[in-house]
Specification:
three-stranded antiparallel sheet; mainly alpha; 43% helix; two-stranded antiparallel ribbon; 10% strand; Aspartate Aminotransferase, domain 1; globular; 7 helices
Amino acid sequence: LTNDDELAERARFVGQSRGGEMVEHFGRVHTVNGFAHRMTQSTAAICLAQLEIIQPQVEKRDRMIRLLSALLDEIPGVSALPIPPETEVYSCWMAGFTIDLEQFRCDAEEFGAQVAAAGILGASQARYYLLPAALPYLTEAAERQRFPYSQPPSSRTYRYDATCCPNAHELLERFIRWSTFCDKYEPHHCEQAAAIVRRVADEYRL
């Protein structure tokens, strides 16, 4: 308990918001080493209830994402995230696809915004998935060689930015996802989502 508003807000920022701040055209960055202290006393009860229905939920997600992926792959210039052939059950929590930037007169950020505006809630590029670029507090610690980045115990210097993961960086420049995909999807929802992506692709196609 505190009557210090500044202290209370700092505690919320670090303990609830995980030290995350939103940056335009990028997404969430973590400026301090925050914590996810957002669990409530109802978490255990919710998890137990979920266990009762998890098998049909997972089976439904697997069927729907495979259907949606097949429909997205039919759109020129659009590729669904590949499902490894050895994966028997694909229980994803979001749907996503990449675009061939050479085939469109927009970048992935604009493409995603148009998909969201057309009806797929939450569709966006999400550059913040590139964790080295989304964790500036690690970059600062490494640059200042704060423990454990000091030498010793570290055997070398560290750097955290997009150059650490060039393949991931390149992928995220073409990647669009939405986390509203769920087990409530039916085949007609997959068809609607693919139709929306197709309309945007046709509108922006070179």
